[in-house]
Amino acid sequence: MKVLLTGAAGQLGQALIAAKPAGITLIACRRAELDLANPQACHDAVQAHQPSWVLNAGAYTAVDMAESEPELAEAVNASAPQAFAEALLKQGHGRLLQISTDFVFSGMQGHPYGPLDSVAPLGVYGASKARAEKSVLGLLGPERACVLRTSWLYGPVGKNFCLTMLKLHAIKAAAGEALNVVADQVGCPTHTAGLAAACWQVLAKDIGGMQQWSDAGVASWYDFAVAIGEEAQALGILATAAKVNPISTAEYPTPAKRPAYSLMDCSASRKLLELEPIHWRQGLKRVLASIV
Fold first, then answer.
1. What are residue 148's DSSP bridge partners?
2. CA distance linking residue 96 with residue 117, whole number of Å
3. Could you give the CA distance from residue 53 to residue 83 in angstroms, rounded to a whole number?
4. N or C: which end of the chain has fewer CB within 10 A?
5. Distance of alpha carbon 223 from alpha carbon 157, whole angstroms
6. Across the chain, what does the average pLDDT equal?
7. pLDDT reading at 292 higher than 90
8. Cβ–Cβ under 8 Å, residues 292 and 224
9. Most distant CA pair in the chain: distance in Å?
10. Interhelix angle for 161-175 vs 221-234, to 10°?
11. Has residue 110 got a pLDDT over 90?
12. What does the alpha-carbon distance between residue 185 and residue 176 come to, in Å, rounded to a whole number?
């Protein structure tokens, strides 16, 4: 099986490369090899490589910056997936795995979102990802396209909440200051190795349609920040964790609005994938242990 992977230098891309199954010919593209802001380049890459699957792990993920760069976010997150789908349609074979996000939801539902629940993104980032979902499934159908939503993704490399909190815990603890972290936004942290395993399982089992994957459990950003400090201190990564104060979204305004509740119901996808998730805190322990 030949797989064209985008975003190879990103946190998910690196996890996918590390977990590549035997028998996969992987064409791993970083931004230098494939600029997702250029739809023609995306189309040409499919034509050149004739992949069995395009695994689109690359994305514009700067949620707040997207509010001031909507054209770039749209090009990378919506136009690129559409170009991949159009190129696969033209070549007559090959499938697409599109990674999406819980930020396609408004957060107003109050109970876990299922794969077929209505989307209503609050910001530019979520809207661009929602358009990608619609276009790839509209063009290729569930027979040749899979959209895999995930939430609060983090890992031992790249830019993510976990690594940022590790630095802030060290800085604040040394200064004798507390961290203030939003406590009224709820979802589920997901470690990259777990999502990578789910992605490879999608390809192995030829799964299509709308799917969802996260670690198990539920957390606020405050819960996650507290756990990062506790687990990092237990592993000796931090000498001391900072005190964490819970604050409201209103006390920490950001350019982009975020869903207050974006927990996803992943039960149907877990059954299809034949994978059991681990609790998000166990995922956190694994990530922190890998950077000791």
1. 99, 211
2. 22
3. 14
4. C
5. 21
6. 97
7. no
8. no
9. 61
10. 70
11. no
12. 26
Q: How many CB atoms lie within 10 A of CB 9?
A: 16
| Interval 268-286 mean pLDDT | 97
User: Quick check: 210 and 147 in contact, CB under 8 A?
Assistant: yes
Q: Which residue has the tokens 């090899």?
A: 33
pTM score, whole prediction:
0.95
Helix, strand, or coil (residue 211): strand
Strand ranges in 53-194 using DSSP code E only, listed in sequence order = 53-56, 95-101, 145-150, 153-154, 179-182, 186-187, 190-191
277 Cβ contact partners less than 8 Å away, ≥ 6 residues apart: 194, 213, 214, 215, 216, 266, 270
* Radius of gyration of the chain, Cα coordinates, nearest whole angstrom: 19
State the CB neighbour count (10 A cutoff) for residue 257. Answer: 17
Residue 234: both structure tokens together: 């237990």
Q: Which amino acid is residue 275, in one-letter code?
A: L
Strands (E), 75-199: 95-101, 145-150, 153-154, 179-182, 186-187, 190-191
pLDDT band at 152 (very low <50, low <70, confident <90, very high): very high
Q: Which domains does the chain have, with CATH numbers?
A: 2-155+189-215 (3.40.50.720)
Q: Which residues are catalytic?
A: 125
Cβ atoms within 10 Å, residue 47: 12
For residue 247, give both structure tokens. Answer: 């604050």
